[in-house]
Specification:
This protein is an all-alpha fold. Helices cover 51% and strands 0% of the residues.
């Protein structure tokens, strides 16, 4: 029997973990972490499937998520310093 395969080389022991590096990796994207702090109130509304499709297409065309698109629209429509928005 002619063995033309190379010998298997075992992988060495895993190097010791760097706790600082692992904490940094687990931290994730800082923007994603802050979204929960910024957007804590949920708003639910019913729309037709056709309107939902148009919103999704518009968001995709702009390279943003539906949530980002709608947040931007609401912020533009209801700015903080507008007199009619104050109680």
């Amino acid at each position: 029997m002619n063995n033309t395969r190379s010998k298997r080389v075992g992988i060495g022991a895993r190097p010791p973990a760097n706790p600082h590096a692992e904490a940094w990796i687990r931290q994730g994207d800082a923007d994603a972490l802050n979204k929960g702090d910024l957007y804590t109130a949920r708003l639910t509304l019913d729309v037709t499937p056709a309107l939902r499709a148009r919103i999704k297409i518009a968001a995709f065309g702009r390279g943003v998520t539906v949530a980002e698109l709608l947040r931007g629209l609401l912020v533009r429509e209801f700015p903080e310093n507008r007199m009619e928005n104050t109680p």
